Write the structure tokens for this entry.
Amino acid sequence: MNQAEKQILDLSERLRYIEDIFGNRENANVALLRSKLNDFKKNQSSLDAGQIKRHLSSLQDLFHFLENKLEKELTPMDRVRIVRHPQRISLKDILENVYDNYTEIGGQDEYSIDPAMIIARAYITRKVGKKIYKQPVMVIGQEKGHGQEFRNGGSVKPWGNAKALEYMKVAETENIPVHTYIFTPGAFPIEDYPGAAQQIAKNIYTMAGLKVPVIAVISEGGSGGAEAIGLADTRIMMSHGYYSVISPEGAAAIEGRLRGGARATPELVDRCAQQLKITAQDNLRMGYIDRILQEPPLGARSEHFDFFKKLRQEVILATDEVILSVRGFKLFRAIALRKLNNPNIYVRWGLSPKSMERLTWQRYQKFRSYSLKYLVDRTATWHKVITKINEVNWSIYSFLRYEFLGRHQRKITHLAEDVQGEVQAVFGRIMNKGSEIIKKIPGFKKEQENTCQLTTLSSWEPGITWDEHCRYISPQANQDRTITCPNSSKFGCLDLWIPDLFSDFAGVCSNCGHHFPMEYEWYLFNVFDSRSIREFNSRIESSNPLEFDGLDNKIIQAQKKTGHKSSCMTFEASIKGVRVVVAMLMAGFRGGSVGLAEGEKFIQAAETAKRKHLPFLAYVHGTAGIRIQEGTNGVIQMPRCTLAVRRYLESGGLYLVLYDTNSYAGPVASFLGCSPYQFAVRSANIGFAGPGVIMETTGQDIEPHYHKAFMTLSRGHIQGIWDRREIRDNLHQSLMTMGGEFLYYR
């Protein structure tokens, strides 16, 4: 193939790429390129070598000019097509061109490691003056490849994320930075062990406390799949990338209420992509990324070697900046890096223990501040002032009671217990000898021991019975008719009279134990002590930060229907006298979906539990996941809430999660799924994605009971299944056994 033929082939590939990006949309510039290239091909045979060379040079100039022009016309959906295109740069390209040497860890196929996730131990060589430094780094990211089907488009399966987590911990052990590259439309939605939701939750929880710098580079950041490796100290986004709570097609399917495999119209998909604010510019403006890495016109491809140089410089500078931001001895280097953009200033990438502590605290503060500028809190100013004063007072009390006095008190108590044990041992021997002597005295009669004391391990705590405690009657009990249990054909259940079923039987079939859905109010009245509930933050309300079409009306309707401002209710209450802080997600409010308001209320509940040294209970009456209409404002709640939970747990807190009805997606894959103690009511369905989403994304038709609580238990995602009528007793028992005497400090 001669030089001219190579140039013609290259131009043909560039045209095909441009046509793919703009889809079926008519564009005069694309039509002009197509026309000029076709005309040249038709007339090529009649041209001599000099004319062919001049025409090709002219065509290349035209392509260059119009590509720059088309760059300014890109829509958000065009950018989605760019990052999904087979010619888009991949992680393998980055490893080859950004790092000086690397060794891929794990196998290349489905049987040893998920091929959609690549982990590599690499190093970057830096020359400073005459000295050369090799700085090691752990590279982790999704691999879409260039059209290889076995990589599954970068959708990582649970064991791929598990492998990534394993080597994040290795990087922490070796005290080297982690560079993550996000190239995923979303995680592969299966619950096979270790389970998509649970594994993502573990990844986010671990990254929240990772004691080495994490730099994330985002190309295609789809929802939970992106968050699995996206909680980073610095987040860089490629200029043509997108970062979103859901794909535009998925949002269009939900907005269009499509069923049965129906496809959304291109116009609806484009509108959703626009409204979700998914582009790099949108995310920078909202504050969820730190900076944008500019790409060549119409996106970076494998042949753009100058872009790889820019990317290399960017990840080096980002790592240096994070290191210097937490290191004590930095002097003028931090200023030089920021002002002069000079990568030739040497920064050692290891951290001391003190610097590690500053790093994790700085990470928490950064994510804690995210999205607050969009928060709608209608709490009166005077009430905010009183609340803040109370928080300060509780903080002072907690420090004195648990930190200052408590530390010394524990030492004295432990010493006293040891001394008491020694004394008991000595006197025990003396009393035993004395008892033996007394028994030998003539006429001594052994008294009859109390039979009850011999046969009873413990006595039942006096209290109200089930029937006495039940004060809330479900509105469903007003129907004067019978209902058939879904299990009647299998277990022979008789028809149930509705007034009895939803009052005396608590919505539970008296024959097979099937649980019918119950309102969240039932739990408020029947689980917690009478008149013990004290709600807080009730004036923080759901909003429409992206001004998504129709969302304002939907929120107003949900508020009128439920009487709540958001789908999360936070309160303090007692269970048999044990005080707890509760965050409850209510299915009746927009499906219990989580947005900015719900995330902020959950975080404040965790902080209240930490401040007051109380157990923290998350009761999930139902959640459909992250509220898609809030876009990145919603998905960012996954790491935000997880960071708050981790901080609470590390301070010694006891965190319990109880699932009911339908609990799916982002919350389960983050701040709920990271709890060490997760339980479910028998009626619960738990998973990463519902049956329809799984069918749409994977083509797999799952079994009917795939998400049932007993299946979730068998996969190890929860620790137990509870009968609704026993929740009060079981929660109290859990608090006493897992929390013990102190209920907060382990």
